[in-house]
Known about the structure:
- The chain is α/β, with parallel strands linked by helices and 280 residues long.
- The protein contains 12 helices and 11 strands.
- The longest helix is centred in the middle third of the chain and has 21 residues, at 93-113.
- The relative contact order is 0.16.
Amino acid sequence: MDLSQEFxxxxxxxxxxxxxxxxxxxxxxxxxxxxxDRKKANFGAIRLKDGSxxxxxxxxxxxxxxxxxxxxxRGLVKQEPLDLVSKFNSYNLFERTIALGTINAISHLxxxxxxxxxxxxxxxxxxLNLKSSDVIGMVGYFPPLVRKxxxxxxxxxxxxxxxxxxxxxxxxxxxLEKRKLLxxxxxxxxxxxxxxxxxxxxxxxxxxxxxxxxxxxxxxFLPDPLFKKKITAIGGSIVNNSQIFFNRIRQGERWGDSVSxxxxxxxxxxxxxxxxxxxx
Length: 280
């Protein structure tokens, strides 16, 4: 089954057991904010009326804003959350982006209802358990993470979609060639591959890897479909205080203590069915 459809079906299963609140607000930063030097201006968010919040990334392509300017956000807010979720298998980038944000919000709802205890962590580097012989693959260019990994001296291959980012350093290179991931035994991948629907394609080139982590602020979802794909870990962000978070994201400020970063593996995740049974 297509991964997008698996997420849709998972959200439908949540809705069978838990009432999904109406949408309270959808925030999309302006295009001017996106072009600023504020990194956090690349993100939007959707909040349900109970405060459950999902984060989504808006900086993948200009097509997002071309559609967003024509959309009636007030109309979107009035839609049922599951109607937005159902667009996750759409070819339309705007619809898929909003759908992932809604999936994250509904996932947040279940995490709250089931009193799920996150394994909080500021970095996925500890999970890598780096050895000098490891060749690291990175799907999506994370400059701060590249700087940290560079200190270990391991070979690093970064896969990017933007030709202008291509470069080589003694220990690492940025490339457009997916087949280079076949050289890597440990891979870190941006969660935005779920939005642009490239995750399955990426996984075809990572079969030699013994570790694959999907990371990023938009990775706040129930991970069941991804663990089925043998993804090792999810590194995401969860909103602690939706009011403070929305105040900060509107201003393009750092989110600070309004969110917490977590790392999730099959070992510390009980699975969707158990969460449902624990839900209040």
